[in-house]
Amino acid sequence: MNLPNLNEDGKPSTNIPLPNSISILSNSELIDLINLQRDNLANYVTQFNLQSDYKDSIEKLLEELHTLEIKFNELESKKNDTYENLESCQILESQYVKEWQDLNRHIEMNYSSAAIKKI
């Protein structure tokens, strides 16, 4: 039975002797290896999960969204034009009411029974 190497405090030693023929990788080499394996794993997974169907549907949805944006902008422009037309109609209506009142007052002053009796 192998007992752990103990240091002077009686705790297990963290220094473990390595064989002479071992080569340890540096941190950058380990990171490169991990990235390579991650990319390989991603490629392997995408073989089973084909994304072309999703890409096609996403592209169609993006086209529909773009079309809807264009229609919305056109509708917004038409709405603004309609508000401007409504405002000009309201101005025209107020001018009509004023002219009607002026004409009615003129007729009342010149052609009413009291005005005719004065003549």
Unreliably modeled segments: none
The total beta strand count reads 0
What is the number of helical segments per DSSP (H or I, 4+ residues)? 3
Query: What's the shape?
Result: rod-shaped
Q: Could you tell me the mean pLDDT?
A: 85
Relative strand content: under 5%
Q: What sequence of helices (H) and strands (E) makes up the elements?
A: HHH
Q: How many individual domains? A: 1
Task: Give the terminus-to-terminus CA distance.
Answer: 142 Å
Query: Which structural class matches the secondary elements?
Result: mainly alpha
How is the main sheet built?
none
- Spatial extent as radius of gyration: 45 Å
Tell me the helix content: over 70%
Task: Describe it.
Keywords: Coiled coil. This is Biogenesis of lysosome-related organelles complex 1 subunit BLI1. Residues 51-85 form a coiled coil. There is one protein chain. This protein is mainly alpha-helical and 119 residues long. The protein has one domain (27-118). The chain has 3 helices and no strands. It has helices at residues 27-48, 52-111, 113-118. The radius of gyration is 45 Å and the shape is rod-shaped. The termini are far apart. The mean pLDDT is 85.
Helix-strand layout with pairing:
Blueprint: H1 27-48, H2 52-111, H3 113-118
